[in-house]
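Would you mind giving me a polypeptide sequence along with per-residue structure tokens?
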Amino acid sequence: MPHQSVAVLFGGRSVEHEVSIITAQQAMDALEVAGYKVLPVYIAKDGAWYAGRPLRELALFRDPTVKYEDLSGVHRVAVSPDRTARFLVMHPYAKRGFFKRDPELWADVFFPCLHGTFGEDGTLQGVFEMADVPYVGCGVQAAALGMDKVRSKALCKAAGIPALDCVWATRAQWQRDPLGFLKKVEGAFPYPVIVKPCSLGSSIGVKRCLDSAGLREAVDTALVLDERVLVEPALTNFREVNCSVIGPPYEASTCEMPHYKGDLLSFESKYSSGGKSGKLAGGKMSAAGMGKAAGAKAGVSAAGMASLNRTIPAPISEELTKEAQRLAVAAFEAIGGEGIARVDFLLDDNTGQLSFNEINTMPGSLAYYLWEASGVGFDQLVTKLVEGALKRNESRRGTQFAMDVNLLHPARR
């Protein structure tokens, strides 16, 4: 049984803040079942970091009046970019002093559960790289590419993976010439079309548009939430097929087919459907059914994506299942992925063609329900992820990053 301490980071400056809290509680349940010591690290919406065992309780986050640093056992902290420190340090404004090390704040590995901006997009991964700490999931470049729907599509196409075409614009381009962008979209695709923020998840800001007026409104909304927007054709007779990938070495999970009402899988469909119970190894309940996950904030299901209605395995042929698994691995490889991802495809029932829709890296990719259906328990899954993070950090230590070239000391030449 492992004895490492794992710092689980969640919350963050993101529109998916509450979703992240749910994900983290699920992950901490599984990590504790696997035998790890868990250190919860909560990042508030204003960007302040807090660490301590009381943050383990989901009910705490239902009270908007809570002052986290006033809680006994909770500390205001930061990650030091100084690689010689390699632990959480006390924040300069913390009540307990300046950069005072506390044994409770040590972590052998960091497990990010931050959805979206400043967590899933490579920025947090850059902090971890500077600090030289082991962390779960993709590196800086792969995380950034996974969040970027335009560039991930381009990489997949270059790798021979079918993907829907798209037209995109920056906020500045839209503000400068909105009519020009509308004409560009209408010249590329017939209505209906789908509008998406380029780098958000959980279906936030996604809109199906039937005409020019709807398109304009949807683009305006998307560009409030993101600096870029993409528009792609809307399939009219399709189903969604998803597959998770872990590695390297890469391994694909069982496929799933989500079910939802309407033309789009909305935020409400994903997170407000009601949870399902399950089991972890050792007879303990999974995160979807544990008591700690009860009473989620703002009506969001404590089971998260696990509460969505779905069929596992997906009701498609064995041949199509293998093709989805092959394409999922190829997509993860295309972005240089590490750790885990869930790759989402659209199945056109008119043609039988699978098209890459998007890739969800850590933490939106945890998809433990797909791995449980593949014979890998949630506790086994997080153990694989933690062990992979430690191995990658050890391997990286074999890379030389600095050299003594004596440019500033001529006498030493």
